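Pasting as-is:
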Amino acid sequence: MFELFTDLTAGSRMVLVFFLLLLLRVPVAFSLGLSAVYAMWHMGFGLDMAGDLIATGITKFSLLAIPFFILAGTLMGSLGIAERMIRFFRVLVGGLPGGMGVVGTVVCLFWGAVSGSGPASVAAIGPMIIKGMEEDGYRRAYAAGLVCTGAALSIVIPPSIGLVIYGVIAETSISKLFLAAILPGTLMGLIMMLTLPLGRVSHHSAGAASLEDSPSLRALGLMPYHDQPYRRRLWLTFRESFWGLMTPVVILGGIYSGVFTPTEAALVATVYALCVGALAYRTLNVPKLYAALGDAAASSAVVMLVVAYASLFGWVVTVDDLVGTYSGLLLGMSDNEWVILLVIMLILLLVGMFMDAVTVMFISLPIFLPVVHQMGWDPVWFGVLLMVNLSIGLITPPVGINLYVAANVTKLSIEQVAKGAMPFMLICLVGLAIIAAFPSLSLMLTR
């Protein structure tokens, strides 16, 4: 066994060491860094190169979008914007069949466009949505599964941190990626609603009044409107949530009108959140700002640490020509492009069960992108397909991070939350197949 290991190239041994470290429960970022350093040492390169490679990997202008989008989402969650939006959507679509299930799906997709982070979305809006769905007759585990899945789609719905990273790695227009993800993201949300009858065990609607008159809303100084006529309630809740609802309009409108770039949009989103909290809602204060900065710094550090060490890993992959070796193996499997695409999607689904989306992209894209170009596939379409695939990984055991956040929020076990998310995972696979079969769905708006 040891002889077989030593016969492999340094790059191949690096990959095996990486997975071994993961099995030993070493954090992903350090698994990447240690395995890469091991390979560099065996290849005869000085370890003093590591610092330069790490610095080169993270000093990219486009990566500035990550911490600022995370900070913007954190600020909007702590300044009362989420509560206002949930109440508005509750009034808007709460009367439709499925009640709070429809509200939960819509709010998760909308909040994904604000935060761009799946786990952050679960933490910010999960408690309110799950509580409302329970009161509206849904099983607790099912409600947690819906929030996990809807929040996972935040890496698909623009502006998406995942799409920013893909655009950097693939050297593809981030603006086009944002535009291409709109229809597929909306499709995924619509097909999620097909499972709503499976999770509803009763049809009473206590959740309607509850969400319109909750302690969190009273703490913000917002009065209940459930005794008002529908049109009056709709207008009042829209007026209260207007500035929050304008967030995606400001961000995406500014990008596509050419006022600012996707990277600059992240800073604009942060400043906008501060202005809304300070001037419109008057909920911004020093303790909230301090807490938001701390949470955003911690979340950004985790992502950027992975990005930093992944640059080492990617350098070894390039130098040892793992790209040519493994992409050649993929291309040699079949002459049928659909077979190759199916194999790539299965690999991504499998790897996504064990690693976060950022890590998967840095490890797999150097190998898959040459195949994408060789097969003549549009890299924008492949980027959207990749994001949908990786969003499924966020709700797939054993390392589906959204499941862990939802379990912490609901006090359920990981197994219970995973079981509740199972219908959504299956329906998301159907959506993945549709997006793969019809590239025009992703490319329609870009043309």
